[in-house]
Each structure stands twice: as C-alpha cells, then as structure tokens.
C-alpha cells in the first residue's frame, strides 16, 4: 500500500512497511528522525512535543493510535475521542508523516507478546490500573521498533509512563533516546489532556484547582512538613474541591517512583496525583 496522501495534507502511513519505507528514504539522505507517539485528540501539549521534535531532528513522525491494550474493560476506550482529520490539520507544518495504523495491523491474529515491567510500573497508576503499563510498554516497543527513530518524545504529564518507558528502553537495549516534554497547562493551570473534554463546566472549574493543591503541597514539603502530613492535608483539600475520589496523592523519588522511607525527600522528588471528578479521572504531577 503506498502512503495515504489523499486523506490529509500530511502523508499518512497505515502500516509498518510504509512507515519503514518513508523513514528509510530519509535515512539515505542522512536525516535524523523523531517519533512522537500519541493517541490523537491532539491539543497544545502534543503540539509542543512535535515542536520539540522539530527542534531536535530533521524529520518528525507523529503516531496516532488509540491503543486498546492499555485500557481496562471498564475504561473509556470506545468513548476516547478520535479526530484524525482535525489532528492532521493541527500537525500541518509540524510533522512530516503521520503513522496511523489500525488495531488489526498492530495486533494481527495470533499476537501473543506482552512486555511487563516490575518496580517502576507497580505503584501509583499500577495499583489503580494494573494492566495499563503492560499495554503501554508493549505498544511503545512496537512503535519504536517500527519507526526506529533517533529520539522519541513523551509528555511529562504521564510522568510514571515516561519512567516506565525509560526503564524498558534501557532494559531491552532499544537504541533510541527518550525525551520528556514539559506539561502544558491551561490559564488556570489545569494540565492539558485529551480527557478534559469530558468535564462539565462545574467539574472543569474544580479541576483547575488541582494544580494549585499540588503546588502548595509540594511547597509545604519543601518547607519541612513531613510527606505524610502534607499529603493528608492535600488530600482533604482535593476532596473539598468536589472531587469524588482521590486515587493517590504521593511524593516519590522522581526516577524510581519509590516512596521515601523517612517521610522526607532524600533525593529528587515529584508529587503525583490521580483523582476522579464525575466520570473523568485526572492525573497531574510537579517537581518538589
Ligand atoms: O501517552 C499516550 O498517549 C499513550 O500512552 C502512548 C504513549 C501514545 C501509548 O499508547
């Protein structure tokens, strides 16, 4: 199948062979390549990753694939926004190629391999979404092996995901440099997310306060409050904002996501939160 050049201004590869052929042609000219993996429904956060890619390499591939294996049966796989035409328009001038395979191409009949990590994938999101990171690691490995980019860029909003991917790439000797792109925020500080479209106006207002609680909780720990005390106070504030359920509010080692045994940070630390409001589950994080 040749590249799909009819659907959008940017050419689209819909299978591994076409993606590899496009990348191989760039390689013959000595051009470097970045991959920005996404699930589409692109917002300014994703576009900032494409801009970062553009600044680092000659060629930019953005993949768009709503990966079924990282959603649990009760999660929002079927409701997840799918907006390929709008996404392609936003990428005009920012990407050289979109890679948008379908599920049958990524997971053909008989597909049997799963990459699962211990350690970094176990706490936090791993407790609440036990099959999530295996789905992410497996699809990201496939995307990296298909595109073979020089660098791959992921948003820091999914901080634990970034840590899991770094670990996997190191463990499996995948020859790619992994870069994190800073979280993009709305004017009230809400971390940009494709899931923010689910929020009702009332929920959206409360959601905009989540980052304020994070910042103040982090500042409190920096000023000497014990992690457990600061987290307890932060949790109460989040529930008082109108969130229905707090999955976690934790301060952890920024790289390993391990807890601090002495209730005080002893290395580079990160505050991470996941909370549900209405039907929407939001996550966010910041340095401490
Ligand atoms: O962060 C995401 O959008 C996804 O988890 C990713 C990395 C594209 C894998 O499906």
Measured on Cα atoms, how large is the radius of gyration? 19 Å
Class per helix and strand makeup:
alpha/beta
| Overall pLDDT score | 97
N- to C-terminal distance: 49 Å
Named once each, the bound ligands are: pantoate
Share of helix among residues? 25-40%
Q: What is the subunit arrangement here?
A: single chain
CATH-wise, what's the superfamily of the largest domain? HUPs
Looking at the structure, the CATH topology of the largest domain is Rossmann fold
How many strands? Answer: 9
Main β-sheet description = 6 strands, parallel
Shape: globular
Can you describe what's shown?
With 288 residues, the protein is an alpha/beta fold. It folds into 2 domains: 170 residues, Rossmann fold (3-Layer(aba) Sandwich), CATH 3.40.50.620; 94 residues, 2-Layer Sandwich (Pantoate--beta-alanine Ligase, Chain: A,domain 2), CATH 3.30.1300. 36% of the residues lie in helices and 18% in strands. The strands form 2 sheets. The protein has a 6-stranded parallel beta sheet with strand order 1-4-3-2-5-6, sandwiched between helices. Strand 5, helix 7 and strand 6 form a beta-alpha-beta unit. The mean pLDDT is 97. The protein binds pantoate. The site of pantoate (PAF) has 11 residues, from strand 2 and helix 6.
């Amino acid at each position: 199948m040749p590249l799909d050049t009819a659907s959008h201004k940017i050419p689209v590869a819909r299978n591994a062979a076409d993606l590899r052929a496009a990348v191989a042609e760039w390689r013959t000219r000595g051009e470097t390549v970045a991959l920005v993996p996404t699930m589409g429904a692109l917002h300014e956060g994703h576009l900032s990753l494409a801009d970062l890619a553009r600044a680092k390499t000659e060629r930019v591939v953005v993949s768009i694939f709503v990966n079924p294996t990282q959603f649990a049966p009760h999660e929002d796989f079927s409701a997840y926004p799918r907006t390929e035409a709008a996404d392609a328009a936003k990428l005009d001038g920012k990407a050289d190629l979109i890679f948008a395979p379908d599920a049958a191409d990524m997971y053909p009949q008989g597909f049997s391999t799963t990459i699962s990590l211990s350690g970094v994938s176990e706490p936090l999101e791993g407790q609440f979404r036990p099959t999530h990171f295996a789905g992410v690691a497996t699809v990201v490995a496939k995307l990296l092996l298909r595109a073979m980019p020089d660098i791959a860029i992921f948003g820091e909003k999914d901080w634990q995901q970034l840590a899991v991917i770094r670990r996997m790439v190191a463990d499996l000797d995948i020859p790619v440099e992994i870069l994190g792109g800073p979280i993009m925020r709305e004017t009230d500080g809400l971390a940009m997310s494709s899931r923010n479209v689910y929020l009702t106006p009332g929920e959206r207002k409360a959601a905009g306060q989540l980052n304020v609680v994070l910042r103040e909780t982090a500042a409190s720990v920096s000023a000497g409050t014990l992690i457990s005390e600061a987290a307890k106070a932060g949790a109460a504030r989040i529930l008082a904002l109108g969130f229905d359920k707090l999955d976690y509010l934790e301060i952890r080692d920024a790289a390993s996501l391990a807890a601090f045994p002495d209730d005080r940070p002893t290395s580079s630390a990160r505050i991470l939160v996941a909370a549900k409001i209405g039907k929407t589950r939001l996550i966010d994080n910041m340095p401490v």
